[in-house]
Design a protein that fits this description.
This protein has a six-stranded mixed beta sheet with strand order 10-11-12-7-13-14, sandwiched between helices. A four-stranded antiparallel beta sheet has the order 6-5-8-9. With 759 residues, the chain is of the alpha+beta class. The protein folds into four domains: 123 residues, no CATH class; 205 residues, no CATH class; 179 residues, 3-Layer(aba) Sandwich (Rossmann fold), CATH 3.40.50; 97 residues, Alpha-Beta Plaits (2-Layer Sandwich). GO terms for molecular function: ABC-type transporter activity; ATP binding; ATP hydrolysis activity; lipid transporter activity. Keywords: ATP-binding, Membrane, Nucleotide-binding, Transmembrane, Transmembrane helix.
Length: 759
């Protein structure tokens, strides 16, 4: 066909012409490069304008670019031939078929040559027009070079990158679940209840792999449904499924090993995704660049760099996945380019020199990392640290009761104690300073005692509690338990020694999808309670904590107080020897608190030792036989609640109710100050007046005498006198830790100022 276009659109390359005859007049092949006008379309095809050229000479002339020639039909015959054959009609048209691709030119030339040989050997009487060889070139290989095939190959490489991205996010979401178990305390609670570390990690791995394989099956099904040839041709589908499965097998243990360093599951999820991108996509790009440059430039040093990087990056499962999928795409492209020429260049992906080494690498990594996760755990690392930091020295304390307890512990008079703390300390080292959270705590707790641990936020009680439940290791000192045989063993070995520990964490370590019954059955099984007795034990705990109305419902429907009751019930499963209760009654109504306290006291009376942290002074007075108040990481007082109030209570609280609401307090205040100069007016609310009388300014009998004598004169309806409460003592110690420069601006105790009573 011919294209008519403007002559200004044609492009011309420079042409260095030369003589076509030598000195003797013989024709020779021109050595210049013809500059035929040409056009290029959007597909990159070139159209040459040979109107001003002799096609035969053009094809014979030397050229830097390969040309493949063609046919001419209707060529004008020379003058000698015209004279001899005057009867032959002269053609008026010229038709040319010129091939710019080699898929048809070579067969056409050979076939025409065969036809000439055939016609030459025909008998003279035969009509040569009746004979000929017809050639069919099929399949047409030229289709391999069109843009559709190229885009198809690029698209499947893009699909490979999308698969890497998707499975990186999938494994990150699965791996972050164990971080959530640790942060919420579910992992620690299960371990204290009897679940071993190896069983925990192995069952987690089995469940996570099962969930992961479901996603792999869905992905493989989608690939098969869309018939992506790079991943479905011959053995490629099986190789793709195996590659995805082994990626999860190698990646999940790797994430388990890193789970300890994250403080929340959200941070772990983002970090895992980032690490997957860096170890996957970035390493793939780093290796692709030298590989492409090596293919283009044929440079051996670039190929060597690619080989080294490829083997180094196989340490990352993410790179192995991406590299394997890209290699499958390369294998398919190579096959598509050669199979039409009856060349089968397909390589089985299971061969060791292809993807076999990636399969082996992923399987080896997964096995090694899983064994490391099963064999290494936090308690084992704590045991390796040993007890070399233990200091058996009595630290001088400001409080005589604290010092007496230290002496009792270090002199070994703890034969009746089930839990003993020896100079327990915890420090945190930063780049610039060392922070001491707990400092030299020594304590012995016998059976049948409920010990209260009080302190404001930052006092160290939460850190002490974490050391008791094994969540963190002490910097120095140790916590031991006494077995029924009288031996002292580390707290982490309590289960092996036959000592049961019940643990109620501060945050409810419950599964929102399980019911209360399912929680109780599961933890009863962990405790080793025989299966036939589990319903009886669970029903007893439900009855004692009044959970009947909620026990059959999922935990996600529970209120905060109901969750705390269920967490306490789980701690009481199996009648433990030691109870660790971290604010068990927070969020409960008064009635539920009473049920909770009764359940705890029942176990304590039966010989259980309990350690309680709480912000409720009422709870401590109701449950604790002894308690300690912590300030700046150390005990400031130790003893029974009444003993502490007697020692540290600062006098009495006097409340006076007047007959009339609007009555001024000045008359009563002046009267009381006349007899007790140190009395302080604390405030007024309606007809209620409140005063504080320090011990040194009077005795209880004199105070009653003055109030009774002046009751009618001062219009007093009734009054009450109370000893300083435990809460007031706690507040006094709390202000010691929370001293600020503004404290110097407080009014002196000698003067009084009216204040509003706290509501």
């Amino acid at each position: 066909f011919f294209v008519r276009t403007n002559s200004s659109c044609w492009h011309t390359d420079p042409f260095s012409s030369s003589e076509l005859q030598d000195a003797c007049g013989c024709r020779k092949c021109p050595n210049g490069t013809p500059g035929a006008p040409y056009l290029k379309n959007s597909l990159g095809h070139t159209l040459l304008n040979l109107s001003a050229f002799s096609v035969e000479e053009y094809l014979l002339v030397a050229s830097e670019k390969p040309r493949l020639g063609g046919w001419s039909f209707g060529v004008r015959i020379s003058d000698q031939v015209e004279d001899a054959n005057s009867n032959i009609s002269k053609p008026k048209t010229l038709a040319k078929v010129w091939y710019n691709q080699g898929f048809h030119s070579l067969p056409s030339y050979l076939n025409h040559l065969n036809n000439l040989i055939l016609w030459r050997h025909l008998p003279p009487s035969a009509d040569w027009r009746q004979y000929g060889i017809t050639l069919y070139s099929h399949p047409y290989g030229g289709a391999l070079l069109n843009e559709d095939k190229i885009l198809e190959s690029i698209r499947q490489c893009g699909v490979a990158l999308c698969i890497v991205l998707g499975f990186s996010i999938l494994t990150a979401s699965i791996g972050s679940s164990v971080v959530k178990d640790r942060v919420t305390g579910a992992k620690r609670l299960q371990h204290i209840s009897g679940l071993g570390y190896r069983m925990y990690w192995f069952t987690n791995f089995l469940y996570d792999m099962l969930f992961y394989l479901v996603s792999v099956c869905l992905c493989v099904a989608i690939i098969f449904a869309f018939q992506l040839s790079a991943f479905t041709f011959r053995e490629n589908l099986a190789a793709t499924a195996l590659l995805l499965a082994l990626f999860g097998y190698a990646t999940l243990p790797w994430m388990y090993l890193l789970s300890r360093i994250f403080s929340s599951s959200d941070v772990a999820f983002i970090s895992y995704i980032s690490l997957n991108f860096i170890c996957g996509l970035c390493t793939m790009l780093i290796t692709i660049m030298p590989r492409l440059l090596a293919i283009i430039s044929k440079a051996q040093n670039l190929q060597n760099i690619y080989d080294v990087l490829k083997w180094v990056f196989t340490l990352f499962p993410q790179f192995c996945l991406g590299q394997g999928l890209i290699e499958l795409c390369y294998n398919q492209i190579k096959y598509d380019l050669t199979h039409n020429f009856s060349v089968d260049s397909y390589v089985s992906p299971f061969e060791m020199n292809f993807l076999g080494w990636i399969f082996m690498e992923l399987a080896f990594q997964g096995t090694v990392l899983l064994l490391l996760r099963l064999l290494l755990h936090w308690d084992l690392l704590q045991q390796w640290r040993g007890h070399s930091a233990l200091r058996d020295t009595v630290k001088t304390s400001k409080d005589i009761d604290v010092e007496k307890e230290q002496m009792r512990v270090f002199e070994g008079r703890t034969s009746g104690d089930i839990l003993v703390l020896h100079n327990l300390s915890k420090s945190y080292q930063s780049f610039f300073k060392k922070t001491t959270a707990v400092q030299d705590i020594s304590l012995g707790i016998p059976r049948g005692e409920c010990f209260g641990l009080l302190g404001v936020n930052g006092a160290g009680k939460s850190t002490t509690f974490k050391m008791l439940n094994g969540d963190i290791a002490p910097t120095s000192g140790r916590a031991v338990i006494r077995t029924p045989m009288g031996d002292e063993v580390a707290l982490s070995s309590a289960g092996v020694a036959g000592v049961l520990i019940g643990y109620c964490p501060q945050q409810d370590a419950l599964d929102d999808l399980l019911t209360g019954w399912e929680h109780l059955h599961y933890y009863c099984s962990l405790r080793g309670i025989p299966k036939q007795h589990i319903p009886e034990v669970a029903e007893d705990l439900v009855r004692r904590l009044h959970l009947e109305a909620h026990v059959n419902q999922p935990v996600r429907t529970y209120s905060g107080g109901t969750k705390r009751k269920l967490s306490t019930a789980l701690a009481l499963v199996g009648k433990p020897d030691i109870l660790l209760l971290d604010e068990p009654s927070s969020g409960m109504d008064p009635c539920s608190k009473q049920y909770l306290w009764e359940a705890i006291m029942k176990d304590v009376r039966e010989g259980c030792a309990a350690v309680l942290t709480s912000h409720s002074m009422e709870e401590c007075e109701a449950l604790c036989t002894r308690l300690a108040i912590m300030v700046n990481g150390s005990f400031k007082c130790l003893g029974s609640p009444q003993h502490i109030k007697n020692r540290f209570g600062d006098g009495y609280t006097v409340k006076v109710w007047l007959c009339k609401r609007g009555h001024q307090h000045h008359t009563i205040s002046d009267c009381l100050k006349l007899h007790f100069p140190g009395i302080q007016f604390k405030g007024q609310r309606l007809n209620l007046l409140e005063y504080h009388l320090p011990k040194r300014w009077g005795c209880l009998a004199d105070l009653f005498k003055v109030l009774e004598k002046n009751k009618t004169f001062l219009n007093i309806k009734h009054y009450s006198i109370n000893q300083t409460t435990l809460e007031q003592v706690f507040i006094n110690f709390a202000t010691e830790q929370q001293q600020t420069p503004q404290a110097t601006l407080e009014p002196s105790t000698d003067s009084y100022h009216p204040q509003h009573l706290p509501i």
